[in-house]
Amino acid sequence: MLERVQPAVVSIRTVSSGIFRSEMLEDPNVRKVLGLPDEVFIIQTGATATGSGVIINGEGGYIITSRHLVADADDVSVTLADGRVFHADRVGEDAPTDLAVIRIDASKLAALQWGNSSELKVGEFVAAIGSPFGLAQTATFGIVSGLGRAGLGADEYQDYIQTDAAINPGNSGGALVNVSGELIGIARGIAAPDQTSTGIGFAIPSNIVAKIVRELISPRRIQARLARPLGDGRSGCARR
Asked: Pairing between strand 73-79 and 235-239?
């Protein structure tokens, strides 16, 4: 089953820029000592992040992943299971579920079949596939520990699948599949995002994911977004 599933799970790397925030730098006295006028802020460029994604349409090159991974990225690249690397364009995002669709121009892509998450039962065996800590094509095994989990405070969405299959930082956006290799969820994260797996991880049910995907890749929602020029990986100063 994993031999069929793993080629459809990808690693995602993003490069982004943003204003460097620090409580110390907000202190007027510190800014005075450093010689930073009020109208000057520090921009950090070349920050990288890694995560996972799932190919859900092989012909079109569409990949589902986590919105927080790609939303503010200057550049998004996708590494396939066979080692090929492609630049990805952002197609659409859904903030309430933290889902996003990106697209690559590639051939011979494997895609996962959709499973029916409404048929899941507690105790059913599942596998999570992704890139925890940047370790591509990692598979972990467990059961469905709970259904309809809410009150996590992570997103507006509140209907998660709970699993004890190990999910760690980097798994977000990866696949949760049943024993038939069908996609029954997209990994969202763990109860404590700043920690390693505690045996309690969460995924967004595939039926919800499929609905969001259809909305995001419909012709009226597709938007071409060009990546902004990247910096040199160093911090710099700019005026407001």
From this structure: unpaired
Q: Which residues are designated catalytic?
A: 68, 98, 172
How far, in Å, CA of 13 to CA of 9, rounded?
A: 14
How far is residue 224 CA from its own chain's centroid? Answer: 19
**88 with 78: CB under 8 angstroms?**
yes
Classify residue 106 as exposed, middle or buried by CB count within 10 Å of its CB (0-12, 13-18, 19+): middle
| Cβ-based burial of 147 (10 A; exposed 0-12, middle 13-18, buried ≥19) | middle
Nearest CA to 206 out of 180, 230, 182, 234 is that of 182
In sequence order, which residues have a C-beta less than 8 Å from that of residue 232 and are 6 or more positions away? 45, 46
Check residue 135 and give its pLDDT: 93
Residues in the chain predicted with pLDDT less than 70, given as ranges, are: 18-26, 30-32, 34, 39-44, 151-156, 190-197, 219-240
**What whole-number distance in Å separates Cα of residue 198 and Cα of residue 164?**
8
- What pLDDT score was predicted for residue 230? 33
**Is the model's pTM score more than 0.85?**
no
Give the DSSP H/E element, type plus range, for residue 41.
strand 40-57
pLDDT score, position 218: 78
Place of tokens 């039926």: 207
Contact 61, 87 (CB under 8 A): no
- Could you tell me which residues are beta bridge partners of residue 152? none
Q: What pLDDT score does 164 carry?
A: 93
The confidence score (pLDDT) of residue 63 equals: 97
